[in-house]
Write a structure and sequence with these properties.
DNA polymerase, domain 1; 20% strand; OB fold (Dihydrolipoamide Acetyltransferase, E2P); 3 domains; Helicase, Ruva Protein, domain 3; five-stranded mixed β-barrel; alpha+beta
C-alpha cells in the first residue's frame, strides 16, 4: 500500500523513527541496526515500508534496503513469527547470511538469534525452503557462459538458491551473476555481490 516514505528525519528512538513528509509525521518501526544506519536527524531519508494491519494493530515497519524488506515479509509468512520477532531478527542477521542459513539448513546460525530456538529455526528453514519462487533447474534461455559456470560450480547453485529464498527469480539472478567474476568467491560473497547488482 505504501512502498516507501521519503522526507526529513525528525526523531530517532531505540525502536522507531519519525519522518516528516510535507508536515505529516510518519512513525515507522525499524530494527536497531536499521535505525543506526538511516542517517542523522534533519537529513532527508528514504525508507522502504511494510504496512502491517491486524485487528488490534496498524503499524508501519521500515527498512533501508529491499532485501531487508523481503526478508521481513518472508519471516512473517512463517507460522509463529510476528512483526516484532521478525524486526528483532533483522537486527541480528543480514539478509545474505539469513538466506544462506536457510538454504544450507544451518540451524546453528539461526539459533544464535535471541528468541530463536532449535525448533523455531527448523520451522523457518522448512517453510522458507518450500517458498522458492522458481524451479531449481537451469532455464532454457540461460546464457551459455553462466550456464557452464552454474553446471560446474556447486557454490553458484547454492548462491542462486539462497537468492531465490529472498524472492528474486532465476532469470534476474543469472543476469546479475553474469556480471561477476565468480572464481574464488565464497557462497556468501557471491550472494552479497549479486545483491548489490540486484538492488540497483
Amino acid at each position: 500500500m505504501i512502498a516507501y516514505i521519503k522526507g526529513k528525519l525528525e526523531i530517532k528512538s531505540n525502536t522507531y523513527v519519525v519522518i516528516d513528509v510535507n508536515g505529516i509525521g510518519y512513525k515507522i518501526f525499524m530494527s536497531a541496526s536499521g535505525i543506526s544506519q538511516i542517517g542523522e536527524t534533519g537529513e532527508i531519508v528514504k525508507v522502504h515500508t511494510y504496512y502491517y494491519v491486524r485487528e488490534d494493530n496498524i503499524s508501519l515497519y521500515g527498512f533501508n534496503t529491499q532485501e531487508e524488506l523481503k526478508m521481513f515479509e518472508l519471516l512473517l509468512s512463517v507460522s509463529g513469527i510476528g512483526a516484532k520477532s521478525a524486526i528483532a531478527m533483522l537486527s541480528e542477521i543480514k539478509p545474505s547470511s539469513f538466506a544462506l542459513a536457510v538454504i544450507s539448513d544451518d540451524v546453528k546460525a539461526l539459533t544464535k538469534i535471541p528468541g530463536i530456538g532449535a525448533k523455531s529455526a527448523q520451522r523457518i528453514i522448512l517453510e522458507l525452503k518450500d517458498k522458492l519462487k522458481t524451479e531449481q533447474a537451469i532455464t532454457k534461455d540461460t546464457e551459455p557462459e553462466i550456464k557452464s559456470v552454474i553446471e560446474n560450480n556447486s557454490k553458484v547453485e547454492e548462491a542462486i538458491s539462497a537468492l531465490q529464498v529472498l524472492g528474486y527469480n532465476k532469470r534476474e539472478i543469472e543476469k546479475a551473476l553474469s556480471l561477476l567474476s565468480l572464481q574464488d568467491l565464497s557462497v556468501e560473497d557471491i550472494i552479497k555481490k549479486a545483491l548489490k547488482i540486484l538492488g540497483m
